[in-house]
Automatic annotation (TrEMBL):
Function: Catalyzes the methyl esterification of L-isoaspartyl residues in peptides and proteins that result from spontaneous decomposition of normal L-aspartyl and L-asparaginyl residues. It plays a role in the repair and/or degradation of damaged proteins.
Pfam annotation, one family: PCMT
Active site, per annotation: S99
NCBIfam families registered for this protein in UniProt: pimt, PRK00312.1
Gene3D superfamilies, sorted: Vaccinia Virus protein VP39
Name of the protein: Protein-L-isoaspartate O-methyltransferase
Sequence similarity: Belongs to the methyltransferase superfamily. L-isoaspartyl/D-aspartyl protein methyltransferase family.
Keywords in alphabetical order: Cytoplasm, Methyltransferase, S-adenosyl-L-methionine, Transferase
SUPFAM superfamilies the UniProt entry points to: S-adenosyl-L-methionine-dependent methyltransferases
Uppermost EC category: transferase
EC number from the UniProt entry: 2.1.1.77
Gene: pcm
Subcellular location: Cytoplasm
Length: 248
């Protein structure tokens, strides 16, 4: 009898020890084999952020903290998993890509997500950017035009009660949940879609790559002031897959 109690106590102690061990141990779960790689990537981004400090393309520490919490390897196809913590875009099927971590960090910085804000993402893709935004506690709505990608991302994002997803043409935004404090567009538009501008709150910000599908695109930070006037700032030359859909 007392022997059983002793064993039980021993187990409890082992469980407590496990949760305290470094290396991503959660109770009863194996260590995250990618933890060291993820930390190295964040350190690399931190170094880039220091180099860019003071420029329009500066990355805030808070954005890096959000990236550090999301296991990027769970958002890429199994064949790409070992490259998940390289600072580059990766193929996710259907001719689409998960953006480079540096760009995700920058767009997250510019969107400045936090609890209490409502954010629209256009181009769910893998679901990674939506997860990073959701880690802030913001309410995130993300829309994807390719149905199988939308379905896969919805599955991955189930762990976030503060993320809503749907299949559809994000050129037209998501009217039912508008207006948004921030809008993050992760595919390149030829110009800023008017419906997205309409669905931005006064005082809100939109981060959007604009330009031709094949040549130069520029990441823009669009501010709508409290009077509804729009101000646009060029942040960085970028290369995104094209925003499809829309009127033409
Ligand atoms: N944010 C994504 C990046 C995906 S790449 C991630 O973190 O993985 C851009 C995505 O935008 C693609 O999946 C593409 O299918 C989608 N897309 C392109 N045009 C769109 C549109 N009009 N509405 C919604 N999604 C669109």
């Amino acid at each position: 009898m007392s022997g059983e109690v002793a064993i039980a106590r021993g187990r409890v102690r082992a469980a407590i020890l496990l949760t305290l061990l470094p290396g991503g141990f959660a109770f009863g779960q194996p260590a995250d084999p990618y933890l060291a790689q993820r930390r190295a990537l964040i350190a690399e981004l931190q170094a880039e952020a220091r180099a860019d400090a003071g420029s329009a393309a500066r990355i805030e520490r808070t954005a890096l903290d959000l990236l550090a919490r999301v296991p990027r390897h769970e958002y890429v196809p199994a064949s790409e998993r070992d490259d998940a913590y390289e600072n580059r875009p990766l193929a996710i099927g259907y001719g689409q890509t998960i953006s480079q971590p540096y760009i995700v960090a920058l767009m997250t910085s510019l969107a400045a997500p936090k609890k209490g804000l409502k954010i629209l993402e256009v181009g769910t893709g893998s679901g990674y950017q939506a997860a990073v935004l959701a880690e802030s506690g913001a309410q995130v709505y993300s829309i994807e035009i390719i149905a199988p990608l939308a379905a896969q991302a919805a599955q991955r994002l189930k762990r976030y009660p503060n993320v809503g997803t749907r299949t559809g043409d994000g050129y037209y935004g998501w009217k039912e949940h508008a207006p948004f404090d921030a809008i993050v567009v992760t595919a390149a538009a030829s110009s800023i879609p008017p419906p997205l501008l309409e669905q931005l709150c006064p005082g809100g910000r939109m981060v959007i790559p604009v330009g031709s599908s094949f040549f130069t695109q520029t990441l823009l930070l669009v501010h709508k002031d409290p009077q509804g006037r729009v101000r646009t700032r060029q942040v960085l030359p970028v290369r995104f897959v094209p925003l499809t859909g829309g009127p033409g």
